[in-house]
Amino acid sequence: MKIAIGGISRAGKTTLARKILNYFPDKKKVILHQDDYVNAGYDIPQINERINWEVPESIDFVRLKYDFNWMSEHIDIVILEGIFALYDEDMNEVFDKKLFVDLGYKKFIDRKLTDTRWGYEPDWYIQHIWDNYQKYREEILKIDDIVIIEENNVDACLDDIFSK
Predict the structure, then answer these.
(1) What is the pLDDT of residue 9?
(2) DSSP code of residue 11
(3) Cα 118 to Cα 145: distance, rounded to the nearest angstrom
(4) Radius of gyration of the chain from its Cα atoms, rounded to whole angstroms
(5) Which end of the chain has fewer CB atoms within 10 angstroms, the N or the C?
(6) What is the mean pLDDT of the segment spanning 39-66?
(7) Would the pLDDT of 151 be above 70?
(8) Euclidean distance between the first and final Cα of the chain, in Å?
């Protein structure tokens, strides 16, 4: 099974991916984190002299697709999670499940302000993250067969998603 999980930064994509792994205890499975496929710093666009992680051009989709395809041939369940997991049209055609964790503005801000993984993020950049999310969110919501998971409904949705 090939699964994509998209959503804004701090939406709960990795948490959902781990819950899915636990949902299938007897299967061979792996999570591919899109953050592991970020281009080298000099190949990522910049905004106000900062690396702009919030654009698809920041991802090495060639390497990501190669690894995803190889793992799909050898592993029962392959989960791709990331802010642009649902961005590539070719990849969207191979996913068995397309999940999108939707997060409201207040919850995003609350979570992002406590996120220290990348160091200090200025307010303007946090707003930039939200604005880009809104831009790409509209296109993602048009994808066929997408399952939208509200921010507080991750646990309750697994049976619904995988019983179909």
Answers:
(1) 82
(2) S
(3) 33
(4) 16
(5) C
(6) 83
(7) no
(8) 13
